[in-house]
Structures are given as structure tokens and as C-alpha cells.
Design brief:
CATH superfamily of the largest domain: Metal-dependent hydrolases
CATH class of the largest domain: Alpha Beta
Radius of gyration: 22 Å
Largest sheet: 9 strands, mixed
Distance between the termini: 62 Å
Number of helices: 11
Order of helices and strands: HEEEHEEEHEEEEEHHEHEHEHEHHHEEEE
Structural class: alpha/beta
CATH architecture of the largest domain: Alpha-Beta Barrel
Helix content: 25-40%
CATH topology of the largest domain: TIM Barrel
Number of domains: 2
Number of strands: 19
Length: 401
């Protein structure tokens, strides 16, 4: 029987999702009637390996409709022009793992193993942390279950709008944790060995079909490859346990944190394991600062996460310690989107993707470059508007609009 706290949370969450869906529906309906936007800038990075000089994007209904020379002349002439002059435009930053100060709301304190809970049901969509995301260039974030649980539930992809978050994808990956925060003397597991045993038992039961229920259904999705699993792990023992579980049950986990992952890099590469790194600071250990460059050389997919306001600093420090700039930008944009299986929606400015982009005065990895604006779904969510002279309808062949 489901505990009252879970039931209450689910009912409240369903109302929240319904309310957000209603807001999103109205917003989408408005977008359908919106005028096309022609975005211009001296440099537009479509993806880490593709940059357009004197670039142009045509935005229609919140999506990238055309890029560069592919933009039809008629569509270009009828669009509203937004010209950022000498600025640099890059895809919006994507957080592959975040709780944004809502860890307590996203946890079930009495139970450690609740893989079927939906994080989307517990999100405070109007939190200050979410509202501030565009100021850091973040246009999408995967809200994860609390690391206080061994299997906390299913993550959700959110996108900040004018004053709240919308749930773009209600069901992403399964979030798990083998860290000390997932252990408690008040309920099992009380130790790392106990956590490993509980996880192994759960996956074994799902594989053999000896138990049924929503929780087993989620674990079977991990086993058949239809749902990814992100696992918080920091120490060498925790990381080894994640790799062992993945090998034993045939899935490719994404490790979140990985502070002591250095000795296991060959195994990560062999088992096709991705890594979500936390915030880097000038005080970080040398091996942590050099880790992104090592991962890049070995072809191990990784993404920068942690504190949103420190993302650019994290990327810049990684570059100072051997990572190339293209890979650093990739770790902020396309790589997290790919780890989330959302690369066709966010993380780049290719045709069909959401019109999520950030405007800087120069190279975003250069900390002297100023953040000018953040656009999400074709709407400016942060930063100053271009001057009236460069934000105006383009003249059409019919004599204007």
C-alpha cells in the first residue's frame, strides 16, 4: 500500500503538472500566432563544430526554422529583425543534473527505494533558483530526485519561462544514489554494502519478473535500454559499484559527481559510461581540474553541471587545464542534451530544435565576455533588448507589415 505522504505528493503533483500544462498550452497557442524572428549576429554557433560568420537564424513558433543561407528570401523579408551586431550567439546551456535548492521537496524520507516516483510532481515551478537560470545562460535543466534515496524516482526536464518553469519532459531517466546521503540509520540501507545489495536485488527481481508493480516496470525499462539511469557516486568504492552493476545487468549508467573516478577511466570508456561533473573552482584539486581534458582524450562523454552561475567558470578552468574550447562548449550544450537523449530538442541550434540561445559580447568561455541576453523558445528571458533600431519589422516586397 502506498504511504499517505506519497499519495498526497502525487495528488499535489498532478495538480501542479496540470496547471503547468495549461500555462504551456496557452503559451504555445500564442507562439503559433507570433511573427517570425530573424536573428542576426556577427557569429552564431549552431553546434560546437559549426559556427556561422555574419550568422542568421529564422525562428518560427519557438523553433529554429531555417539557418544561414537556407532562409527563404520571402520569410526573411517578412520577419522581425533582431540584430545583435558584433555579439556571439551560442546554444543555451543545459543542466544534465540539478535540484536547484529543492532537494527536500524531491525526496521521500521514509523509503529509500521509490524508482517510480515522478520528480515533476514535486517541483516548485516558481522558485527563485529557477527564475534565475536564464541569467546564467541556462535554458533547460533536468530536475533530479534527491540523492538521499537509493532510487529516488524519474527526473524531469524543465525550462524557465517569464516567471516560472514549464515541464518540457515529465519522464526522463531514473535517478539513483550510492553516496553517503542515501544511507540512514533510521531506515535501510545503512551502509554502502547494504545499498549495493538493495540495488542488485531490485534489478535481479525486475530481470526475473518475480515481482510486479510500477517500481519494477521502471527497473525493467533500464534493463531493456528504454530508460537511462543516472547514479550519484563520488568515492572509488561507489564508482566501482556503479560500474559493476552496469556490467552485471547490461546497462550503461551515467555517473554524477565522480570525484574519485580517475582510476576507472578505462572502464568508463569500455562500458560507454557518461559522466556529469560538478562545479570547478580555482581551489579544486588539480586532478579534478585536469579530468575534463582526460575524458575528452579518451572519448568519454561528459557534461558540466553544478551551480548554474559557475558554469562558465567551470568551463574556463577546464580549458586552462588542457581542455579545448570546442569541447568545453560542448560540455555546456550538446553533450548534456545527448546524455539526456534530448539532442533533437535542446543543446544546439539546428533546424527543428527549440530556439534556445545565449548572447555574449565575445567567446562565452572567455570570462571577460559579457552576458547580453538569453532566449528560450524564441522569447527573450534575460538581458537587455536590442536597441529599437535593430529590433524592428523587416520591410517586405509588399511595402512592410
Amino acid at each position: 500500500m502506498q504511504d499517505p505522504l506519497s499519495l498526497s505528493r502525487r495528488l499535489s503533483g498532478l495538480l501542479t503538472i496540470a496547471a503547468l500544462a495549461a500555462v504551456t498550452t496557452v503559451s504555445n497557442a500564442s507562439a503559433q500566432n507570433a511573427q517570425d524572428l530573424l536573428i542576426r549576429s556577427k557569429r552564431i554557433t549552431i553546434s560546437p563544430e559549426t559556427t556561422l560568420d555574419d550568422g542568421r537564424l529564422l525562428v518560427r513558433n519557438g523553433k529554429i526554422a531555417y539557418v544561414g543561407d537556407e532562409i527563404p528570401t520571402e520569410a526573411s523579408s517578412r520577419a522581425r529583425v533582431v540584430d545583435y551586431g558584433d555579439a556571439t550567439i551560442v546554444p543555451g546551456f543545459v543542466l544534465a543534473y540539478a535540484t536547484l535548492g529543492q532537494d527536500a521537496n524531491l525526496a521521500e524520507s521514509a523509503f529509500a527505494f521509490t524508482p517510480d516516483l515522478l520528480v515533476a510532481e514535486g517541483i516548485d515551478a516558481w522558485s527563485d533558483e529557477i527564475e534565475r537560470l536564464p541569467q546564467s545562460g541556462v535554458t533547460a535543466a533536468a530536475m533530479a530526485p534527491s540523492e538521499r534515496q537509493l532510487a529516488g524516482g524519474i527526473a524531469a526536464l524543465i525550462k524557465p519561462t517569464a516567471d516560472h518553469a514549464t515541464v518540457a519532459i515529465a519522464e526522463l531517466h531514473l535517478g539513483m544514489s550510492l553516496t553517503t546521503n542515501a544511507r540512514s540509520q533510521d531506515r535501510p540501507p545503512t551502509s554502502l554494502m547494504g545499498a549495493i545489495d538493495m540495488a542488485r536485488t531490485g534489478f535481479a527481481d525486475a530481470k526475473l519478473g518475480v515481482r510486479t508493480g510500477a517500481d519494477m516496470a521502471v527497473l525493467r525499462q533500464v534493463l531493456d535500454g528504454s530508460r537511462k539511469v543516472f547514479v550519484r557516486a563520488n568515492t572509488a568504492r561507489e564508482i566501482r559499484a556503479v560500474l559493476d552493476l552496469g556490467k552485471e545487468f547490461g546497462f550503461e549508467p551515467v555517473i554524477v559527481g565522480g570525484a574519485e573516478v580517475g582510476d576507472y577511466l578505462p572502464r568508463l570508456a569500455a562500458q560507454k559510461v557518461g559522466l556529469v561533473l560538478g562545479t570547478l573552482t580555482p581551489e579544486s584539486k588539480l586532478e579534478q581540474l585536469a579530468l575534463p581534458a582526460q575524458l575528452s582524450k579518451l572519448g568519454i562523454p561528459f557534461a558540466f553541471s553544478g551551480q548554474p552561475e559557475q558554469l562558465r567558470l567551470t568551463a574556463a578552468l577546464a580549458v586552462q587545464h588542457g581542455l579545448d574550447r570546442r569541447s568545453a562548449l560542448n560540455a555546456l550544450t550538446r553533450s548534456p542534451a545527448t546524455l539526456l537523449d534530448q539532442q533533437k530538442t535542446v543543446g544546439s541550434l539546428r533546424v527543428g530544435n527549440d530556439a534556445d540561445f545565449v548572447v555574449f559580447s565575445g567567446d562565452p568561455i572567455d570570462l571577460t565576455s559579457r552576458h547580453l541576453a538569453t532566449w528560450i523558445g524564441g522569447q527573450r528571458r534575460s538581458g537587455a533588448a536590442p536597441s529599437p533600431a535593430t529590433d524592428k519589422p523587416a520591410t517586405s516586397a509588399a511595402g512592410g507589415l
